[in-house]
Amino acid sequence: MNITLIAGARPNFMKIAPFIRAIQKVQKTGSTIHYPLVHTGQYYDQTMSGTYFKELNIPESASNLGYA
Description:
alpha/beta; globular
């Protein structure tokens, strides 16, 4: 199963964090779920975005639409 998670600002990341944790829990049972995280780059700041991932304990985004 493939699920694409899309987020752009801190509130979006806060909302998807529980989904990521639930997916990771299911993955531990052997289920094959892929969930690329796409950062839209809204209000993008390298330092601030990195903080979101650390604080919410979620993986870095697979791609970022806001910068090359």
